[in-house]
Amino acid sequence: MATKLPSPPRVGMVSLGCPKNLVDSERILTQLRADGYQMSPDYAGADVVLVNTCGFLDSAKEESLEAIGEAIAENGRVIVTGCMGKEAETIRARFPQVLAVTGAHQYEQVVEAVHAAAPASLSPYIDLIPDAGLKLTPRHYSYLKISEGCNHRCSFCIIPSLRGDLVSRRPDAILREAEKLVAAGTKELLVISQDTSAYGLDLRHASWPLKSGGEVRAHMTDLARELGRIAPWVRLHYVYPYPHVDNVIPLMAEGLVLPYLDIPFQHAAPSVLKRMKRPGNDAKVLSRIHAWRDICPDIAIRSTFVVGFPGETEADFQYLLDWLDEAQLDRVGAFRFEPVEGAAANLLPDHVPEELKEERYQRIMAKTAAISAAKLAAKIGRTFDVIIDAVDDEGGATGRSYADAPEIDGEVFLRDAGHVTVGDIVPVAIEDADEHDLYGVPVGA
Ligand code: SF4
């Protein structure tokens, strides 16, 4: 039976007041889009309506109250944010049915209120951020979406039919958003899209002038370089191994972009890749990985694989295991093939029985855990920068190195870290390792 996809909740937005308020509205909507919400252009189609108010003058306050009243009359499920949040009592007295009231710049609180009012269920089949991303993104890292849609037609995927062909955002708009995020406290930008390496193809890789002078081309390499100048850490996700990807490796060696590549290979056996209709399906990928490591020896490569794809034979699966031995990927996620409603792969012959999928899943997880453990053990005794995600009351802290994207990769557990705060990037001496995580102490502690 095909897996049914959840439909995303829809949010309506009424934004009043000055350009600063508009920027806040954009930031809230960007976060909600990343969290799996869709926008509704009208009251009727919205599961919840956000009113971003202005309270600068009495006339603006009255306009805000009228807008809240209209949203309640038209939809009924309303969250109020913005400058009038300071007057929560007035709002609640007049509109007791308002679901939540938050103040200006309280992004986290307003997004949290939307999550409570209309919970989003992310789907691993269409959403880019991990399920755990439903937890609010803390200020020190942010997802930055650079395009929507995809030109490929992988047989297990329904994204092109849902989201259409690739539409890239203008590079100047992306850089402006990145600057705003960094000004608001972001230290790490996680670049996402369905196919980051295809960025700008639809714009014919045209150039845009920059406010600061010069220009930027709508191309992954140029965008990565500019982002590297804006944010301390830039992490690239969903990159396909096209030849031009080789050009971002020197940026990693220079320290402009984290030496981390998330490449969803999905399989290695040529016949399976062919049936999957995967892009970048190139027999020379292994030699390219070796060449990348020659330029940037510490590069961490993360990937995902599907086991039990229709027609996958034992020989295909063994090919994949042998390929992994050779590729020595740092981080691997595996999935058992599931037919998603509407995917072309569902019609392929020779579906793999569930018990066999499970057995192959266990085998690939054991293989990749052993590779990961060996690679992490080799880091003991070295020092790496770690971004702090959490601190505890007992002098411990949890963070991530360049090789760890939030939620999907490992963590670095620190002792004697009472002096660090969330969002700091600190050098850490690695003392121990296990299959997925590292243990260490801040240098000089
Ligand atoms: S590259 Fe393939 S799997 Fe990825 S979004 Fe496009 S069609 Fe789907």
Question: Overview of this structure, please?
Answer:
- With 445 residues, this protein is an alpha/beta fold.
- It folds into 3 domains: 10-117, Methylthiotransferase, N-terminal domain (Rossmann fold, 3-Layer(aba) Sandwich), CATH 3.40.50.12160; 141-377, Alpha-Beta Horseshoe (pyruvate-formate lyase- activating enzyme), CATH 3.80.30.20; 383-442, Nucleic acid-binding proteins (OB fold (Dihydrolipoamide Acetyltransferase, E2P)).
- 32% of the residues lie in helices and 21% in strands.
- The chain contains 12 helices and 20 strands.
- A 5-stranded parallel sheet has the order 2-1-3-4-5, with helices on both faces. Strands 16-17-18-20-19 form a 5-stranded mixed barrel.
- Helix 11 links the parallel strand 14 (300-307) and strand 15 (331-336).
- The longest helix has 24 residues, at 354-377.
- It is globular, with a radius of gyration of 23 Å.
- The protein binds iron/sulfur cluster.
- Iron/sulfur cluster binds at residues 150, 152-154, 157, 159-160, 194-195, 279.
- This is Ribosomal protein uS12 methylthiotransferase RimO.
- GO terms for molecular function: protein methylthiotransferase activity.
- Keywords: 4Fe-4S, Cytoplasm, Iron, Iron-sulfur, Metal-binding, Ribonucleoprotein, Ribosomal protein, S-adenosyl-L-methionine, Transferase.
- It is found in: Cytoplasm.
